[in-house]
UniProtKB/TrEMBL annotation:
Gene3D superfamilies: Classic Zinc Finger. Coiled coil: none annotated. This is Zinc finger protein 593. Residues 63-85 form the C2H2-type domain. GO terms for molecular function: nucleic acid binding; ribonucleoprotein complex binding; zinc ion binding. PROSITE patterns: ZINC_FINGER_C2H2_1 (PS00028). Keywords: Cytoplasm, Metal-binding, Nucleus, Ribosome biogenesis, Zinc, Zinc-finger. GO terms for cellular component: cytoplasm; nucleus. Residues 1-30, 95-129 are annotated as: Disordered. Belongs to the ZNF593/BUD20 C2H2-type zinc-finger protein family. It comes from Alosa alosa. Involved in pre-60S ribosomal particles maturation by promoting the nuclear export of the 60S ribosome. Negatively modulates the DNA binding activity of Oct-2 and therefore its transcriptional regulatory activity.
Amino acid sequence: MGKSKQCGNHKGDKKKNISKTWKTKRRTKDLDQIHTDMRPDQAAKLLKQDVDYDVTGSAQHYCLHCARYFVDLKAMKEHFKTKIHKKRLKQLREEPYTQEEAERAAGMGSYIPHKKVEVHTQAVEEDMD
Ligand SMILES: [Zn+2]
């Protein structure tokens, strides 16, 4: 065995961008509120908000599922790739389960399976310029 060959695929440059783990401010909406926001009419309004300079990114880049604003499209797209966002989509796939619903199902003797909803990251409009 001689010298180990230097193979040129050094996979040491994975970006680990967890430099700032800021404390989560509990300002986000409840999941059931977000379910409401996900209704197409509501979603359309939220995704096309008027310019508001008091809001991050002038309220032009809003993640519907996390109820968060981003400074620009790039920041929002980066956010879509994060665990936080993916975890949120997963949470939102489960429809809110109420006690009432459970009792009704039990009373009728037939269990209605929990509806799974498809939740996808909202489409982003790519700026072509
Ligand atoms: Zn998100």
